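Work Package 3 (structural annotation) set out to generate three-dimensional models for the target panel prioritized at the project kickoff. During this period the team completed the workflow that converts sequence records into discrete structure tokens, so that structures can be stored uniformly alongside our sequence database. As a representative example, we reproduce one entry of 732 residues exactly as it appears in the project archive.
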Amino acid sequence: MATPRVKIAHLSDLHFGLSRSPLLRKVFDKRVLDSFADHIVIQNPQLIIASGDLANNPTSWQLRQACQFLERLCRNCRLSKDRLVVIPGNHDVSFLGNLGYKPFTSRWFDRVYPSWRGRRYLFDKDLGIFVYWFDSNPSKFSSFARGQVTQDELQRFKQCIEGHRGSKEAHEFLRSFKIAVVHHHPMAVPYSGSDTFLLLNGAGDFLSEMAKHNVDLVIHGHKHHWGFSRARIYPRDEDIRVLAGGTAGRLGDQPRYNLITLLSDGTAEVKVFYVPPGGTVEEETGKRTAIFDLEGAKTRAFLRNVQACDRHYRQISAVTRVTAEGDVHFRKTFKGMQTEPGTDCANSQTFAIRSDTGYVRGVKAWMETSDRRFELPCKPDKPRPDLHSGRWTLDFERSGEASSDPVGFEYGYWILNGMARNQEDARVMYELGREPYESAWVGVTQPTKKLSFRIVLENSPLNPKELKYIVRAGDDKTEGSLSEDFREGADVREGPPFQIDVSVENPCVGYVYEVKWPLHAVGETQDSASAAQARFLRNQLLKLIGKQDGSLADLINKKLTAMQEWLRSQAPFHDSAEEMDLSLMVWDEEKRVLRTVASLLPPEHRSWSWEVHFGDGLAGRTLKLRKRLLYIADHIREEKHRYYISAEEAGTEASAFKHRILLSEPVLLGDTIQEVLGVLNVGSNSDSSALYRFASPDSAEAGRWERWSQEKAGDLAVAICEYYANPPKQPA
């Protein structure tokens, strides 16, 4: 649900000074303004705007009364003075609002509010608002109560806008909610009587300039009637909104004030508060108005982001495919890329990849034009990217000039071990307390008219009613059922493979759209005898870390040595430079990693300190899938098969063992993770190793070798079990 992001209290036409005249006491009562002030403090606004006619006449004592009231209101709201926007109305610079020579009669206002003529704007990038205020009083002689925004005023406004567009904060500025404050009304207020002596001369020019520079809301006072209007002015593609404040001070015209609220989902609304005769402040029924509804907010966000970004797209689509092993392939496609005429288009695009569990493989990108498709250079931001995250930059190879010819590009990558397959995996891969769900999401980083994303699950049975749909905007989150709360934009197809399609029109830049699905339970063996035995054996084996002596260590080393000698005897020819890596890694349930407890490599070798996470690398994947895996350096053709993590990728020293071939075999007492002891690794740095028999094209030969590794892993598990069933006697 959207939450308030910014609140703005808007008061106008306070008319301090009326109560000094006995004849006019019935049309002004300061107690009404005090009631408004108390109510505003409770609303906790971030900005207060007073849009003119603070006093009834331009005398210092009337203007100071108004100044004291507004400054006290700021203090009570715990706002600094720069969060108070004040402009003069016709009564602040002309007697009775009609008579005066402005260079003379405006000096009292300038003395009481000396800062108002300096900086005419407020830009707060954290709040995402920009406010500019105008002086709409005639430059010299009063023209009854009419107003005028001079060309000098408009030129000053345009210079301010252009200055911000060229600044370091241009992106934040272009996306900000822009408000123009003027005293005289630029549009007729409905049902408010004649405007003969109240007009804003040149109102059409004023509104055209506001539309041209993407002002979202114009607020004003002057006429003591509340009103809200919308108008579309060429060349702007959306309406400009105009909000009248009425009067907060004249009793005869129903005192009221506006509370403008900008919400986290981009919408905006205004509530109107008044004081009924003899009552307290309450919201005026029928006056609550959506300045921007959700559809308008999306349109506004798209147009602003087109300005803030150097390109926009007809459609962005993303496909997330989750394999039966828990690997994830992600592909994101940008179609119909266009830039605005007269803008410089960057010839590169940067994207980030991050995974909390898996490791990144095969980052590639392509560009598509009307007549060809070709691979794009894709460069990581670091010479050796991190296994789990990084940033990549695509070079578009374009001239850098704006183009109206639609083009598209696409990038994709694998995250091996990116997701849990079931609740058993989730208990190992994620922190305790996390709900048993997996999710896929896509973030909108560029403006687009349509976002579509697809999730394909190769082996995850789904119940459509269990799917959750989430929209995130910063810290705000909206969550609901995909099948019930988002029927029109979603489609679920039964499988396997199961397919979820989601479509979003005019998605908001910066928003994240996410779908979550439940992970199902597998057979529980937590309290079985074999699980308890496996847990006991693992804890005992982990005590061997750092020790190379003792009867159990000797037993395991003898088993590993026998395997090594037999493999050397089976090699097609002797390689005197061959080194073999035979080791036993045990599952540390508490740390959730595989740790080396026995190895034929010397104790000072780096492999002794390796800790392999569940699903990572060849050994971790063997643990996750509970099946034998084989890595051959020159045989990997597809990125999705690059399970092996080299010493360089792991960040270890270059002198670490470099496998040409590696076999990982699970050491099991049962089928579940609770019944696993660990992983037996058998590797070699030689191209003539007997291990290549595992990859023999002769299926019978390969099958014989596979049975050998399974038998050796089983023999090792049996020997460890027998050791603790019949431990050797200690010498007396």
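Residues 695 and 702 are 6 Å apart (CA to CA).
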